[in-house]
Automatic annotation (TrEMBL):
Gene3D superfamilies according to UniProt: 3.30.230.10, GHMP kinase, C-terminal domain
Organism expressing this protein natively: Agromyces sp. G08B096
Transmembrane segments: none
Enzyme class: transferase
Subcellular location, principal: cytoplasm
Record Pfam families: GalKase_gal_bdg, GHMP_kinases_C, GHMP_kinases_N
Boundaries of every Galactokinase N-terminal domain copy: 10-56
Name of protein: Galactokinase
Gene Ontology CC annotation, any one: cytosol
Amino acid sequence: MTDAALALDAFAQWYGRRAAGVWSAPGRVNLIGEHTDYNDGFVFPFGLDRRTQVALGDRDDRVIRVASAFAPEAVSLHLDELSPDAVSGWAAYPLGVVWALREFGADLSQVRGVDLHLTSDVPVGAGLSSSAALECAVALALNEHWGLGFDRPTLAKVGRLAENRVVGAPTGILDQSASLLAETDAGVFLDCRSLDAEVIPLRFAEEDLEVLVVDTHVEHAHATGGYAARRASCEQGARVLGVESLRDVHVDDLPRAAELLDDETFRRVRHVVTENQRVLDTVRTLRERGPSAIGTLLDASHVSMRDDFEISVPELDLAVETSQRHGAVGARMTGGGFGGSAIALVAKPLVPAVSEAVLTAFAERGFRAPTVFTVSPSQGARRDV
Ligand code: GLA
């Protein structure tokens, strides 16, 4: 059975009737460009071949009811009672999206309520944006079902607002943009200032490359601690340097920045500035020389996150170093950091050996066994049925 058929089935079992439609959206891997999104910089993610489905059916009243494969109970909310704090737990994501659609100007005063059912195979807590997948699937479904007429960049902002308010994490636009704009076998080169996006073929399969994900199972929470602190450092750096955001600082400006900033803030700034340049270099290298040539940029990105931005953890470093030692083209942690996943770009014949080496290295260090799997760049949010 396809995932869409399974979603239809689950809806029918839960609600006792056939859904009007099924929409889905993928999680994401960020190939490069970390902590650059909220600095108005550049990112280059792709969509995962793991998705969240939402099956939707009309109701006669103005109630939104959400059920899911990951919770025993459905949660209901009246459309006249929308607020970011109205519900908590997993249901806050889909209901937060409904609230955020209204915040963006959707007139929901006349629409009828809906029943929603959610299923997903995006790993939760792995730094692969399972929450963005959920937000974007629901945002696209309601946008189309209610005829709201928002374009995808606006839906990405809707998802981000839901995330910021519901989860309380001051995250950027990366995850939702990737989930909505991704295409098969391609990356999304996004300018987070203008929100101009260009879809660029990755050609991994042509060059016999695979992307290996190492989910360390080290938990991260962007609503607390490190993520917000990094963001505050970036804002502080921009203030001292007299720019609107770190996007306006170029690699050539770094010597001057070093004179003006304290050591820690300078290293935070240096990560963002050099990471923006690495995204541009990655896109250019990919176009001119193909994906086998981007490895050193991935490696350099990891070093910068480990030493300058200080968002890696020993498990991520071990995954990266072990992959590199066993022949990966390049490797880096991906996502917000402090846990989650690393990625390695690996020649297909080496995938079993690299995976094995990572598992062995984790066992030797006494770390919890990671989950290692390959992913392929896949299509963004869409209607399936
Ligand atoms: C998390 C956030 C994104 C982005 C990344 C770091 O995934 O949700 O907005 O800031 O971290 O690049």
